[in-house]
Structure formats: structure tokens, C-alpha cells
# Entry
Amino acid sequence: MGNEQEKKFVFKVAKFEHTSKSNNKKRAWRSLKQILTMERALIWPDDAVLYYSINAPPSFKPNRKYSDISGLMAPYTDPYSKLFYANVDEYATIQKLPMDISAGYLQLRGASSII
# Structure
């Protein structure tokens, strides 16, 4: 077994260069930050679509709910405190929490606080 050569997996092509050739001229690739800076410096018509002006449409999928206690997927919501929970143990913990702590969890999540 000592004479067998170990296989070395190479995930990078040794001849790869981070440039592109066109008309026998080397051009360095531009990063997205460089492209955005260049586009902002130029004067464009109002209806032009640029990298920094493209907005994604809203998602049609419902937001995922995660437990405020553990961070696991939370299929349940406490009707009194509006905290999300994943199982019975977390629900028991939520019921024992004082009002200011549960309001702090809601504030961390970005939900409206209970008044």
C-alpha cells in the first residue's frame, strides 16, 4: 500500500487566469462594485435599467416562521404573547416568561410590541 499514489482532487484549473481576451488584448474582469461605480458616474436616461436600479418582485411564498426561543421551524403561535414556538417545552417556557421579556423577543423579531 505504500507504493500506491494518493489521488489528489484538483478543483482549480492551473491555467485559469482572471482575465478575458478579445482582439488579442487582455482585459481584467470588473467586480460588481466597479460596475456600479462606473454606472453611477455616467449620465443615463430616466427609464434605463441599471444594476443598482433592478428590484426583485415580492415573493408569493408565505414567510417562514422560526421559534423565538430556539430558532427551529415554528408551526405554532402563542395566542397571548404572539411568540412563535416549535414544541410543548417551548410553549411551557413562553407561558412562564414575564411580559417585558416576551416584549423583548417580539422587538428582536421586529414584530409590534404588545401594549
User: Anything to note?
Assistant: The two ends are 73 Å apart (CA to CA). The longest strand covers residues 19-22.
